[in-house]
Design a protein that fits this description.
CATH topology of the largest domain: Peroxisomal Thiolase, Chain A, domain 1
Distance between the termini: 15 Å
Number of helices: 13
Radius of gyration: 20 Å
CATH superfamily of the largest domain: Thiolase/Chalcone synthase
Number of domains: 2
Helix content: 25-40%
Length: 414
């Protein structure tokens, strides 16, 4: 018999808040965290803006020695995981830690470490490269370090599927709990790639917005005048728990994970498949997995990157999946506020989706000012909406043609 999987805790590090309460308040009031980049000199870059994490002190979560041995993306993951456990009121010292696992991914990994150690190699020679270089850089180390710091000895893995990473990690982790292989999974995504190399690469690809004069208006998903994505950074980590285990300890349940779908476009390195057909198949698989009809879904947290092809094709994919019901759905992209957090996006957006269900408030797509005839759905423009929906869906679509979708549902006793 498969186990029901519920969300009992959440932790977030983001451009719009590093604790769940302030983060959620900024989401529902439509606050933007986009600003001119401060982490390095952007004077020679076409794009000069990003969603930076401010006021993050890793020493709140670990000692100085561990800080020096972790890339920023790993520090974010450890912080978000510890906050999620605290939010879940879950004490691992009272549990069988073989039954607690970690599944946290990163799309790119320790790019800032790679850049710094390469600089040392070129300037000072190979003997000056840190012995911690490799374990600081590799993308799986977010899951590894969270496991080590918490003593979680159950299933341990890392999804690496570009911008679909966070959602793949949550979906895969939910399946582990569903199969009974763990009672608790600490799952999500993390990313910290506001670095010179990442900016240079995305700028060369002409993928990022150059709306530098008004940073907070630059990310405008589904708006006709969108001109590219705005990079963000941070982490989103959820506690996924076997329902029986959660009930036995009197846990607060925020939502239930009921469906998961993933597909491949088999089309192009960076461009989505025509008409979003891969994304549509992912949503259909997620609905089938959940045992829900299209009409059961009331809200979609869209991938919504603020790029021309993505927003157009994701809109088409929603229409393909939901038919006439597509026009009755609420759809929003919170990337308009926190930017595109790449491998962390799915984790952060799953948290938003769960809170939307729990609180009965649908987050807005801010900066929606110029309707696009090719993007003609209800994008919850500019202001949050108080609506209680029964089930919601969150999409993440990544370079390489990775599509991932999870379905969350308000918790109901059978």
């Amino acid at each position: 018999m498969t186990k029901r999987v519920v969300i009992t805790g959440m932790g977030v590090i983001s451009p719009i808040g590093n604790d769940l309460s302030s983060f959620w308040n900024n989401v529902i009031t439509g606050q933007s965290g986009i600003q001119t980049v401060t982490r390095f000199d952007v004077s020679e870059y076409p794009t000069k803006i990003a969603g930076e994490v401010n006021d993050f002190d890793p020493e709140v979560y670990m000692d100085k020695k561990d800080v020096r041995r972790m890339d920023r993306f790993v520090q974010f993951a450890v912080g978000a995981a510890k906050d999620a456990l605290k939010h879940a009121d879950l004490d691992l010292t009272t549990m069988d830690r073989d039954r607690v696992g970690v599944y946290i991914g990163s799309g790119i990994g320790g790019l800032s470490t790679l850049e710094e150690e390469h600089r040392k190699l070129m300037e000072k020679g190979p003997r000056r490269v840190s012995p911690f270089f490799i374990p600081m850089m590799i993308p799986n180390m977010a899951a590894g370090q969270v496991s080590i710091s918490l003593g979680a000895k159950g299933p341990n893995s890392a999804a690496i599927s570009a911008c679909a990473t966070g959602t793949n990690a949550i979906g895969d982790a939910a399946k582990i709990v569903e199969r009974g292989e763990a009672d608790v999974m600490i799952a999500g995504g993390t990313e910290a790639t506001i670095t010179p190399m990442a900016f240079a690469g995305f700028c060369s690809a002409k993928a990022m917005s150059t709306h530098n004069e008004e940073p907070q208006k630059a990310s405008r998903p589904f708006d006709k005048e969108r001109d590219g994505f705005v990079m963000g950074e941070g982490a989103g980590v959820l506690i996924l728990e076997n329902l029986d285990h959660a009930l036995a300890r009197g846990a607060t349940i925020y939502a239930e994970v009921v469906g998961y779908g993933m597909t491949g476009d088999a089309h192009h390195l960076t461009s989505p498949a025509p008409e979003g057909e891969g994304a549509a198949r992912s949503m259909k698989r997620a609905l089938m997995s959940a045992g829900l009809a299209p009409e059961d879904i009331g809200y979609i947290n869209a991938h919504g990157t603020s790029t021309g092809p993505n927003d157009k094709f994701e809109t088409m994919a929603i229409k393909t999946t939901f038919g006439e019901h597509a026009y009755k759905l609420a759809v929003s992209s919170t990337k308009s506020m926190h930017g595109h957090m790449l491998g962390a996006a799915g984790g952060v957006e799953a948290i938003i989706t769960a809170l939307a269900l729990k609180e009965g408030i649908l987050p807005p797509t801010i900066n929606y000012e110029h309707p696009d005839p090719e993007c003609d759905l209800d994008y919850v423009p500019n202001e949050a909406r108080k609506v209680q929906v029964r089930a919601a869906l969150s999409n993440s679509l990544g370079f390489g043609g990775h599509n991932a979708t999870i379905v969350l549902k308000s918790y109901e006793e059978l």
